[in-house]
Design brief:
The complex is a heterodimer of chains A (145) and B (189). Chain A has 145 residues and is α/β, with parallel strands linked by helices. Chain A has six helices and five strands; from the N terminus they run αβαβαβαβαβα. Chain A starts with a helix and ends in a 7-residue tail after the last helix. The chains are: A alpha/beta (145), B mainly alpha (189).
């Protein structure tokens, strides 16, 4: 009984503090949906872009091996120390760098793009819908009998 | 009535003398208490650090929760403000040794949930930052935090079972309270 009461009291404290955070914190999250991202790029925009694109795959090494956008480089938090120097070897400042991960719900591409920008790759954006959107766009048309 | 009170008083005093711990037992108890307080304080500080780093930027933490691809955005956003608050409250409880049972239940439950999420991320091959300490410690991956969580679960378990096994009142305390009761009843009679 004491345990239940204590669990309840701590929960009450957390709800109060969480409520205050949700109401007044200047960096509170948007509860209706993910915020709009200025560096988010759609597939349509990549097709229309005049600059050459350097694709960066932010998914795990296993997912990259299983399939990736042609010419993409694998760069994620796990392989960053080895893969970032390789990325710099391939990178040409005239290129537009676009990072992708698995799907819309995946935020990893955004984080890697942010890390690239912090590392001096100023034109790094990320693909809306990620690998899932790319596959939908580039999947072979169903064969007609 | 006075004779009965005196006999009861003498019996209680004998019980106190018989149950008085030996110096070795006292030393063991002291070491046990020091270890327990150290573990509890360490766990408390870790939860407080985790809470504060997340509370600095809840929007960023919401995105880190969304990275696990387990919950819709709205739930991730709600958890991003609620989880750090819960970690903060239970961390304070552990630090000051108040509401300890409740704090240990929450700590164990959160660690089990976090460990489950990490195992799920590893099983799906997601290469994500665990988000355990907001953005203060980046690039932690998932395997390292999983091992750390399992160790913290062991610490929480030790604190839980040592709490339940340690009697709330020692035998001496029980005898002394008995002594006090009898003395007061003796005075009344």
């Amino acid at each position: 009984m004491t345990g239940t009461r204590e669990v309840g009291l701590i929960l009450l404290g957390a709800l109060l503090l969480g409520g205050v955070t949700a109401a007044v914190h200047p960096k509170r999250p948007s509860f209706l949906g993910p915020p709009d991202e200025p560096n988010e790029i759609t597939l349509a925009q990549t097709s229309a872009a005049s600059a050459k694109i350097l694709w960066v795959d932010a998914r795990s090494d296993a997912e990259f091996v299983a399939g990736h956008i042609p010419g993409a480089l694998s760069l994620n938090f796990d392989n960053w120390p080895d893969a970032f120097p390789k990325f710099l070897d391939h990178y040409d400042p005239s290129q537009r760098v676009i990072v992708y991960c698995s799907a819309s719900s995946c935020q990893l591409s955004r984080e890697i793009a942010e890390k690239l920008r912090a590392s001096g790759v100023t034109d790094a954006g990320f693909l809306k819908g990620g690998w899932e959107a790319w596959q939908k766009e580039h999947s072979p048309a169903p064969r007609t009998p | 009535m006075g004779g009965v009170a005196e006999r009861t008083l003498a019996r209680a005093e004998n019980a106190v003398n018989a149950e008085r711990p030996t110096p070795n037992a006292e030393r063991r108890t002291l070491v046990f208490r020091v270890i327990r307080i150290t573990l509890r304080t360490g766990l408390a500080l870790l939860f407080l650090f985790a809470a504060i780093t997340k509370l600095i930027d809840p929007a960023e933490f919401a995105q880190q929760i969304a990275n696990y691809q387990l919950l819709p955005w709205t739930v991730a956003a709600i958890l991003a403000v609620f989880l750090p608050a819960l970690e903060f409250c239970l961390g304070l409880s552990l630090l000051f040794g108040r509401l300890e049972t409740g704090a240990l239940i929450w700590a164990g439950s959160l660690l089990v949930i976090f460990t489950g999420a990490l195992i799920s991320a590893i099983a799906r091959g997601l290469s994500i930052d665990c988000g355990c300490f907001g953005r203060s410690i980046e690039n932690t991956g998932t395997v390292g935090p999983l091992i750390r969580n399992l160790m913290l679960l062991v610490v929480t378990g030790l604190l839980w079972f040592s709490r339940r096994n340690s009697p709330k009142q020692t035998a001496n305390e029980s005898s002394l309270s008995l002594l006090g009761r009898n003395r007061s009843s003796g005075t009344r009679s």
